[in-house]
């Protein structure tokens, strides 16, 4: 069993915003309704979503490459280094995606690294209205350094 360690999630969150094609309008509407709160945090997004957030809402967003081209995996890698604190991912449950394995990997990494994820508007509303949204928060993640020490000593 892998050991865990406590770290502090900063008050200024690093938030990934992702939406499948059929969900982009919904994510844009959600972001627009919470613009003042979100502007206080550091925002990341997969390609097309990021460009829409910039062009339509004037948000300062670091846009990665498009999800199907590797953007989901890029966000997943950032989860493993605690470079993303929260994921708002409006995915389309009715449409099969050619990059479903990437989406599943991203959600798995969020679970492994104990990162909150909202996959729909109601859950996103709960996250953004939480008192923890804009305060520092202590939480546990896998202690990878301990894991490596144990493996190299064995």
From TrEMBL:
Kindly list the GO molecular function terms attached to this UniProt entry: methylglyoxal synthase activity
Q: Can you quote a single GO CC term?
A: cytosol
Q: What is its EC number?
A: 4.2.3.3
The reply to whether Lyase figures as a keyword in the UniProt entry is yes
Q: Tell me what reaction this enzyme catalyses.
A: dihydroxyacetone phosphate = methylglyoxal + phosphate
SMART domains cross-referenced by the UniProt entry: MGS
The answer to whether keyword Protease applies is no
Q: Which GO terms describe its biological process?
A: methylglyoxal biosynthetic process
Which residues act catalytically here?
A: 72
Q: Short name of one Pfam family for this protein?
A: MGS
Please state what class of enzyme this protein is: lyase
Q: Which InterPro entries match?
A: Methylgl_synth (IPR004363), Methylglyoxal_synth_AS (IPR018148), MGS-like_dom (IPR011607), MGS-like_dom_sf (IPR036914)
Which keywords fit this entry according to its UniProt record? Lyase
What residues does the MGS-like domain cover? 7-154
Q: Which residues bind substrate?
A: 20, 24, 46-49, 66-67, 99
As for what it does, the entry says: Catalyzes the formation of methylglyoxal from dihydroxyacetone phosphate.
What HAMAP family has UniProt attached to this entry? Methylglyoxal_synth
Record's family?
A: Belongs to the methylglyoxal synthase family.
Q: What is this protein called?
A: Methylglyoxal synthase
Q: Which organism is it from?
A: Nitrincola nitratireducens
């Amino acid at each position: 069993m892998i050991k865990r360690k406590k770290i502090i999630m900063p008050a200024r969150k690093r938030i990934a915003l992702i939406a499948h094609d059929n969900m982009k309008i919904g994510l844009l509407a959600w972001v627009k309704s919470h613009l003042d709160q979100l502007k206080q945090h550091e925002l990341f997004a997969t390609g097309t979503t990021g460009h829409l957030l910039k062009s339509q809402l004037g948000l300062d967003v670091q846009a990665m490459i498009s999800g199907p081209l590797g953007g989901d995996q890029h966000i997943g890698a950032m989860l493993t280094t605690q470079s993303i604190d929260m994921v708002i991912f409006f995915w389309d449950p009715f449409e099969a995606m050619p990059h479903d394995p990437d989406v599943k990997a991203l959600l798995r990494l969020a679970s492994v690294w104990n990162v909150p994820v909202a996959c729909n508007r109601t859950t996103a509303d709960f996250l953004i209205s939480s008192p923890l949204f804009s305060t520092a928060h202590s939480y546990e993640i896998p202690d990878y350094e301990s894991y490596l020490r144990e493996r190299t000593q064995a």
